[in-house]
Design a protein that fits this description.
Largest sheet: 3 strands, antiparallel
Strand content: 5-15%
Helix content: 40-55%
Oligomer: single chain
Structural class: mainly alpha
Distance between the termini: 103 Å
Shape: rod-shaped
Radius of gyration: 44 Å
Strand order of the largest sheet: 2-1-3
Order of helices and strands: HEEEHEEH
Length: 171
């Protein structure tokens, strides 16, 4: 008799568990009009009006009908989700993305290299124009490999050519 309070508590706890599971019952009317009971929801396509009881945690399906559509119009069935891509499709997509990234990186590197080369050419042309305008005596190497001094006409002609080069390449 000493264990009686423990037994009563155990029976009470068991009763609560059973009551909770009874609460988690579905009750609906099937297509033949027969009432069905289950711990699983009714089969898909069972009209909401035929679901007689839901577990408290089960949410109702709310159908939103666009404005202007009669409420009695049947709601369109939800479209099945697109199937997930296969491993081969994922791999092909990853390879294509990697190839695109590689091509883009190569193109960007080429653009960077050309921009650097253009900056260097511009700096050389500007330095050459400063030399031409400095008034110092300038020399060139002729066809025979000899150094010859440039006259004022040659300096003016070379200055005009370098200015045109700077105008086109130093932007």
């Amino acid at each position: 008799m000493r264990h009686k309070p423990f037994s009563i508590a155990l029976i009470g706890l068991l009763g609560l568990v059973l009551a909770a599971s009874a609460q988690a019952q579905w009750k609906w009317r099937d297509a033949k009009g027969k009432v069905q009971y289950s711990d699983m929801p009714p089969p898909p396509g069972t009209p909401d009006k035929d679901v007689l009881q839901r577990p408290p945690s089960a949410a109702r399906n709310i159908v939103v009908v666009p404005y202007g559509t009669p409420a009695s119009a049947p709601a369109s069935e939800p479209k099945p989700a697109a199937s997930a891509p296969t491993k081969a499709e994922q791999d092909a997509g990853a390879r294509q993305k990697t190839e695109q990234e590689r091509v883009a990186a190569k193109q960007k590197e080429e653009e960077r290299r050309l921009a650097e080369q253009k900056r260097e050419n511009c700096a050389r042309a500007q330095a050459h124009l400063r030399d031409l305008q400095s008034g110092a005596r300038l020399t060139r190497t002729n066809d025979k490999g000899e150094r010859v001094f440039m006259d004022e006409g040659q300096i003016a002609s070379e200055s005009a050519r370098v200015r045109d080069l700077i105008a086109s390449d130093c932007r």
